[in-house]
Design a protein that fits this description.
Blueprint: H1 9-21, H2 25-29, E1 32-40, E2 48-51, H3 53-66, E3 72-81, E4 85-96, E5 99-111, E6 117-124, H4 127-134
Parallel strand pairs: 1-6
Antiparallel strand pairs: 1-2, 3-4, 4-5, 5-6
């Protein structure tokens, strides 16, 4: 057999998360399916559901800008591989506005049959810490 082997799902998940961590959002978004959904549970400013590669790219660029590109996986604790999902548990640090966030985050990445990423959910171990770091959601603008 000639040519490179196709990437594994864990390899694709690792590539996606490493590209985000290095600020290469456009490259990371190439690994996303057209109907991708990116969900961050919680009530902080960066929580929400983002549908489609462009919305995910915008959200990740916002995260990168807000943290001055300081998102850093201090330690990847574990990679769990299932039939349709890869979960990654990491100790993360990032800076914003003179604050330092350190905490544990679980990334749950779902794949379709073709091996494209169709869903990502990001769970903060401590929602209160995420709220203190990111702050509450912005108030909607008054249309008047």
């Amino acid at each position: 057999m000639t040519g490179a082997a196709s990437p594994t799902r864990v390899g694709t998940a690792q590539s996606f998360l490493m590209l985000i961590g290095s600020g290469e959002i456009d490259q990371a978004s190439l690994l996303l399916a057209a109907g991708v959904s990116y969900h961050v549970p919680g009530h902080h400013a960066l929580a929400g559901t983002f549908s489609g590669p462009e919305a995910v790219r915008e959200h990740l660029n916002k995260l990168n800008a807000r943290t001055w590109g300081s998102l850093n996986a201090i330690k990847w604790d574990d990679w769990l591989v299932g039939e349709d999902h890869v979960a990654a548990l990491a100790d993360i640090s990032m800076r914003s506005g003179g604050q330092l966030f350190t905490g544990r985050i679980l990334f749950l990445v779902k794949f379709d049959r073709a091996g494209d990423i169709v869903a990502i959910t990001v769970f903060f171990e401590d929602e209160a810490s995420a709220m203190r770091f990111f702050g509450p959601p912005a108030e909607p603008e008054d249309p008047r």
